[in-house]
Amino acid sequence: MEFSSKLLEKAVYEMSQLPGIGKRTALRLVLHLLKQPKERTRFLSQALLSLREDIQFCQSCHTISDTALCEICSNEKRDKALICVVEDIRDVMAIENTGQFRGTYHVLGGKISPIDGVGPSQLTISSLVSKVRSGGIRELIFALSSTMEGDTTNFYIYRQLQDADIITSAIARGISVGDELEYADEVTLGRSILHRVPFENSLKNK
Amino acid sequence: MEFSSKLLEKAVYEMSQLPGIGKRTALRLVLHLLKQPKERTRFLSQALLSLREDIQFCQSCHTISDTALCEICSNEKRDKALICVVEDIRDVMAIENTGQFRGTYHVLGGKISPIDGVGPSQLTISSLVSKVRSGGIRELIFALSSTMEGDTTNFYIYRQLQDADIITSAIARGISVGDELEYADEVTLGRSILHRVPFENSLKNK
């Protein structure tokens, strides 16, 4: 792409550094901003800058939070002995949305992935391990995505805590509610048969 | 979506104001920035801000330019008497890419679209009309997209300049080079038959 303006070229370049945003999309977005009032660009830039500068993470669960202890960790009604281990804040939001979970979270900040240069030390695993070791934790629920990286991360944490006196569980995998069996992949279908639940239990939350 | 952080919520909101960026994508982009070094966010914000603040448009053709007269308009080798009328800078870049056009451009900045509240006065039509009226223009090539809005805009300009002593033309519509006839829409195929060209001409630029 040949640009008639260095300013435009720079803005498009920076925009196209975002994941999933190619040069063409970046140009479209930047041209859109140019057509909007200047405030729009100012608001966007300032919101991004102040997020990046002033971002805080909950001291306990490491989710993004404006306070030292996030709303969930500081909520007395939440079960602190039950911790759901997730990758990032999107998973927290997704699970919170279900309204089914009254425990707390631990946000790892990613998954172990040697290919992307992410080792255990870049994640909040040691914080989780010391939280468990300091006592008062009853159960860890692993809720990472079931990819190779997710499984590796789960297993790494599991090994670190093998001698700890806690229950470890993983979220159930199976056919989505409302999905047709014939379109399900065989791994998921296989697991859903292997980990079948008593029929009376399957009637809950319908 | 429920956010645990106002800073995050604001950044996601501002990001999701961009066209084609929903709340989920915005969250993904913002979380990506959080994982990157702070400079990334600073560079992006500054590039957008300085583009929006310091943007200039060519005094002659109204394309985005860092100089008062853009590179094309100030190039002595370009034919100033031949003007290609386009919607925005992306069209200029696309046509420049072909290497087939040695004239100049006129960037309208949009199309007449009452539904979007865009009237002739928001576009650079009057500047085009006075450019033609001040003389020295031989031909206008309409290269807007062939939508209702594009056709309306073409026709509006055509009417304004009906009495001017210039040639007006429109870019050829037809089957794309390499495309199969059977998959072409009938309007395009119809036009490509109606506006057929002498066979010898069709051999050029192959």
Describe this structure as you would to a colleague.
- Two copies of one chain form a homodimer.
- The first copy, chain A, has 206 residues and is α/β, with parallel strands linked by helices.
- Chain A folds into two domains: 6-54, RecR Domain 1 (Helicase, Ruva Protein, domain 3); 79-202, Dna Topoisomerase Vi A Subunit, Chain: A, domain 2.
- Helices cover 41% and strands 10% of the residues of chain A.
- Chain A has eight helices and four strands.
- In chain A, helix 6 (148-160) links the parallel strand 3 (139-142) and strand 4 (167-170).
- The N and C termini of chain A lie far apart (53 Å).
- In chain A, 28% of the residues are buried.
- The model of chain A has no long low-confidence stretch (mean pLDDT 91).
What can be said about this structure in brief?
Chain A is an alpha/beta fold. Chain A is built from eight helices and four strands, in the order H-H-H-E-H-E-H-E-H-E-H-H. Chain A folds into two domains: 49 residues, RecR Domain 1 (Helicase, Ruva Protein, domain 3, Orthogonal Bundle); 124 residues, 3-Layer(aba) Sandwich (Dna Topoisomerase Vi A Subunit, Chain: A, domain 2).
Number of strands of chain A: 4
How far is the first residue's CA from the last residue's CA of chain A?
A: 53 Å
Largest sheet of chain A: 4 strands, parallel
Give me the secondary-structure category of chain A: alpha/beta
**What Rg of chain A do the Cα atoms give?**
22 Å
- For the record, the count of structural domains of chain A works out to 2
Poorly predicted tracts of residues of chain A: none
Q: Which two protein chains have the largest interface (Cβ within 8 Å of the partner's Cβ), and how many residues from each? A: A-B, 61 and 62 residues
Order of helices and strands of chain A: HHHEHEHEHEHH
Question: In CATH's first tier, which class of the largest domain in chain A applies?
Answer: Alpha Beta
